[in-house]
């Protein structure tokens, strides 16, 4: 088995599906000869030709609108939004159009589109590159929103996303692209798009996270273990839909939960999960369900991002607050 | 000024193409499309039929029996002349006023009524109609058309994607993106801008400094034409040539049709007297597409009052039957709508489906 970074695993997944299915098309800004600004599509145009892997004019709404059109011709488009902050340019095409194709046409058409896009803080980008915008997307009926936390998951989840016959937003945390390697099978495999993954078992506390916050939560859990607090860490993998059953099962065991997200506090994924837990398991709780989030400001100018972003210390403190409640 | 802007005098390059003038006389014999007498009569039949459909739809709306409706009278030549140039496997991406094109491409009339009534079956195009349902967001269909066309090109199909918007639509970012994408990929698309002079109430003069919308094609590097949108022969001819170019691999075309909607923007309370004058209305009514085509056909001995009455009667009967059929359509349920959200329903919707099954059984 090969060790891969997340970006390599993503390229591997794209290559796998380009090989498997002639209808798969990969396109976006700089994805052709340049191989993408993060090299996610490195070598794919040479291998599969310009009809399958190609550059587009620089216009995000055009890219997603084109993907919608291509899907009527039985293609399986995998467009890239170069940085997810640029999705605002394409909000109608994503939320008003792609997400509604099946519903609007009563099943006559559908949009098997996987929109890949880098996001996430900690890499000192200019404005509107690093924002966590998944909350906007999870409020759009018709979309699935997938966020892998590492190389193995990225490959399996991306293959599943591409094969799914409805639109998927596949968000790749930039900090995770090359920060560590993992064993990734060379053969193809899929991971369910509606199942969370228990990445660490524990008995005292349930930590629910996704993307880079899975690693902050794991680090907190490891350190807390030494202090005698046993945390279970759940990696959502998919933030729409939410696998609430796995969360509830864990909460019923630990009686405590904290949801950790890199996004701002207002609304969003964590708020939804807190609401579900209290509606469905309030009598199992020994403490309020807390959140660890970023503050409700615009994503900070990069000099402030280390403080602004939630980290494992924040998680540890919140765990203790809950344990002492 | 040292430099002369190339935009000066550009309107001379975009003179309005006309074949049949307001008096029903051919003014451009060389451009006369190759249509048989039967075709000419069929075009007239469709325009008359569609005018009756518009009148009946407005009446039904006023009786509270239709729902959402965007009147079409005045735009028949633009809508039906362009649709007449299509093959069955061409793909239509309509705006919300472009229901007639769908109907003549094969959308059953009762489904068109269901679209108005807010029933999803109205959006379910029959298998042999390659079309999306009418787009509500102005311009969203234009980028999609580029994608449909690129797909057709890559599949080696000899077909085109044709999309419609209005003069207001040509101000949207999606207009520039979609037309430009199609140009960049030399995709077989036809972009029709039906310039009916008002985006709801805002006159076209306030949309842009450009004297024509057709000239925007220059910036995108593709052919563009300004056409008399009240002249069904000119519209047909220009679209038919654009189609030929597209399927021969010569890329997309932008076509501006100069037309006018006699009615309000939609039947939901728009009052055109707030932004149009009676003089303007009557000036455009003189250009009416049906009046001039009738003169032309009568001159050729192909049309008569009797024939027109016959078409109108048939239209009324068929409309009546279609409304009856639409009345019989079972009301859609929320559970049904939940079931068409995804191929595989996620857990939250399965749960909500159960809740609504119960709510709907009460």
UniProtKB/TrEMBL annotation, chain A:
Keyword vocabulary terms for this entry: Oxidoreductase, Thiamine pyrophosphate
The keyword Oxidoreductase is annotated on this UniProt entry: yes
Gene Ontology molecular function terms on file: oxidoreductase activity
Keyword Oxidoreductase: yes
Residue ranges occupied by any Transketolase-like pyrimidine-binding domain in the UniProt entry: 4-179
Cofactor(s) this protein cannot do without: thiamine diphosphate
Pfam families per record: Transket_pyr (PF02779), Transketolase_C (PF02780)
InterPro entries recorded: THDP-binding, Transketo_C/PFOR_II, Transketolase-like_Pyr-bd, Transketolase_C
CDD domains named among the record's database cross-references: TPP_PYR_E1-PDHc-beta_like (cd07036)
Superkingdom of origin: Bacteria
The protein, known as: Alpha-ketoacid dehydrogenase subunit beta
Source species: Allobacillus saliphilus
